[in-house]
Amino acid sequence: MNTNSTSVFSIPDLSFLNSPVPPTKAFYVDTRSVWNNIPDGIFALIAPVVAYWTFSLFFHIIDTYEVFEQYRIHPSEEVLKRNKAGRIEVLCEVLFQHLIQSVVGYVFYYFDKPVLTGYENHAMWQWKTTLTSSSVGSIFFSSLKPFSITNTLVNYAVYFVYQYGISFAKILGGFLIIDSWQYALHLLMHTNMTLYKKFHSRHHRLYVPYAYGALYNAPLEGFLLDTLGTGIAMLITGLSPREQIFLYTFATLKTVDDHCGYSLPYDPFQMIFPNNSVYHDIHHQPWGIKSNYAQPFFIFWDQTFNTIYPGYEEYRTQQRKVTIAKYKEFLANREKKKK
């Protein structure tokens, strides 16, 4: 993930980690790119937009041709019957949201400092030296031989933690920051009726969400909630352009999946994260609109502030995973209790 390897997946010669002398440390601008000589900072703006419409197109196709009707959360006729916004309006609003997102992202990119490289081998050498010479490390690694299996494993461990472990921690931190930012603003939009009526009510015109309506928001809300929130996460965690590509694209795909209107089996987003399409669908219903505010990754803020839809947490724990059949059963049981 870091921009300091010779290519995205290659493992360079790590013999420098066995040297008693540290590698030369230099600083120069990194001009390498992930794809087709496009600067990574620019690609970080392009990739999420392409991912949004590609993933949305997938769901639009299975929606149009009724490929996975057994996994649809709501009957298709409810989209026209219950939604208060037409598809063309939604399309135009999302395109405008992407325009705002791209312009703001470019401003961040323009003022961002150039990515430097040339110092990474020196840093990894220092990591290993510190590890093996520490009071604890010296017990286990005091007699490392350059070509021993243990030494090779230590070298690979240092390399992978430095190259990928740090990136993983930063991106996970970005997830937590985005969740915290969006929960706070989302809750505010629902508790302050002025803000709700002027801004957030537009998103709730879609009672039956669908994929490309994920970013259907009032422009100011979209800027504050999505664009600015993700930008703040990037700044706080100090993401490199390559890490930005992953965070922005992954978050975009997750948001589309949350609004897709399907609970597909083996969907990795819905298998990994408890905050999924079914969980967020409850929030879009008139009876669940005052609950399930957490988005887009985790539900710990809903758990902390007790804003999960009543009975859902117990139901989710008992069933371990809410499938579409179980969710429809949940809705049916709810209707019976009302009667």
TrEMBL record:
Q: Which domain of life is it from?
A: Eukaryota
Q: Do you know which InterPro entries this protein is assigned to?
A: Fatty_acid_hydroxylase, Sterol_Desaturase_Related
Query: What sections of the protein cross the membrane?
Result: 42-62, 156-178
**Location of the protein in the cell:** Membrane
Asked if Flavoprotein is a keyword of the record, the answer is no
Domain Fatty acid hydroxylase as annotated: residue spans: 172-307
One cellular component term (GO) for this entry is: membrane
Q: Which UniProt keywords apply?
A: Membrane, Transmembrane, Transmembrane helix
Molecular function in Gene Ontology: iron ion binding; oxidoreductase activity
Question: Where does this chain mainly localize?
Answer: membrane
Which terms does the UniProt entry file under GO BP?
lipid biosynthetic process
Q: What is this protein called?
A: Sphingolipid C4-hydroxylase SUR2
Q: Which organism is the protein's source?
A: Hanseniaspora osmophila
The top of its lineage is:
Eukaryota, Fungi, Dikarya, Ascomycota, Saccharomycotina
